[in-house]
Amino acid sequence: MRTKTGRYSGYIRPFSFLIDFIIINVFAAYIADFPVEQLVFPTVLSIAWFSIAAQLGFYEVYRYTKVIAILNCAFKQGCLFAVVTFALAFFYAKQTSFQTIGLFIFISFSLILGVKFSIYFFLRKYRVLFGGNFRRVILIGKSMNVAPLQHFFTENLDYGYQLIQIFELEKEKEAKINQMYSFVMDNKIDEIYCSMSDLTQNQMSDIIDFADNNLKTLKFIPDEKQMFFRNFTFEYYDYIPVISLREIRLDENFNKNIKRIFDILFSCIIIIGILSWLVPILGILIKLETKGPIFFKQKRNGLNNKEFDCYKFRSMEINELADLHQVSKNDARVTKIGKIIRKTSIDELPQFFNVLFGEMSVVGPRPHMVSHTQKYALRINKFMVRHFIKPGITGLAQTRGFRGEVESDNDIINRVKYDIFYLENWSILLDIKIILNTIYNTLKGDKKAY
């Protein structure tokens, strides 16, 4: 079901359209000195802005929309608008310099983005301080399945959800569902959240009919397994509807090329700026302590489950179990210098060569050794989905505490959950956020880095 438009959107969005229209055309006249007196120029410029915005969903900002999602959309909006502006300037304003055009784009877009975030954060504060712009919601399902969302609603008032009632389906499901119907109508409830795993197909169909017939927003809470594969995409082959299991953002050539360019630039910076002098120093230290190579090479599974050689600084003594057993806490195989480079994650830096060679990415699901991939593929549902994209030196799961040794199935289940979220919601800004979080966690010290 399509998300219901916010009750204030009918006022805020037209206001945003008008403000943006004024900013673009005023700055076009007074900064870039574009020929706005020629009606065609401001008309084409405005149409270009709003056409790009409509395509990207620049104005589709909801109370649950994350800041990084807004920034990601804004980045694309700014880039495409810049291309159109330079093209227009080339044909209609040849006397205007590139520097002036760039200044116009930067100032006007910065001001538009500033207004956008001012409205966004004002509404969040308004909900908390004045209790306005709230959605009245209810939860229906077993207590353990609705508890995370219950916690979210009660702890994040700035999102603007007011939890009115919880209908627990521990027993007497039909009676509770009927009671819910009456409660929703009597108490002017806006949104209904149902736990999918606690309802039969017929019960879900009845609740959908009720919501549609009474103009109520209905949303379903998947369980842990359902969460892995509910990012359906709906397509038409001629007039035939087809549902695709998931949308992988990096399947799009534009996104793939952007990520590859970022990987090459970032890996070159690390290789030239750090590894060029770090390799000889660590090489001497590693050789002085134990015999063996400086680098450790291990077969791991990458894109489409293809095996590749993953490089690391050698942190252990040469042993026959290196390709079978993960390092555990206080592992006797780890050398003295190995403890230091593992604690600081320096041992992972040679993988930037893997990135440069195209076998890995800076950010992505962490690759596992071949023996572990084979084991987890049999035991963990959806484990192989993470191989739809290139593996990474760091990943979303690692920044959320699921790095290093797998101590229980729960560790790998959560790792897979975050990896699948990443491949379905990738953006270059998300990559940058993960990199910054990784640096912060490394400097702070990660208890699972051993």
TrEMBL record:
The chain crosses the membrane at residues 12-32, 38-62, 74-93, 99-123, 264-286. Residues 259-443 form the Bacterial sugar transferase domain. Keywords: Membrane, Transferase, Transmembrane, Transmembrane helix. GO terms for cellular component: membrane. Its main location: membrane. It is a multi-pass membrane protein. PANTHER family: COLANIC BIOSYNTHESIS UDP-GLUCOSE LIPID CARRIER TRANSFERASE, UNDECAPRENYL-PHOSPHATE N-ACETYLGALACTOSAMINYL 1-PHOSPHATE TRANSFERASE-RELATED. This is Exopolysaccharide biosynthesis polyprenyl glycosylphosphotransferase.
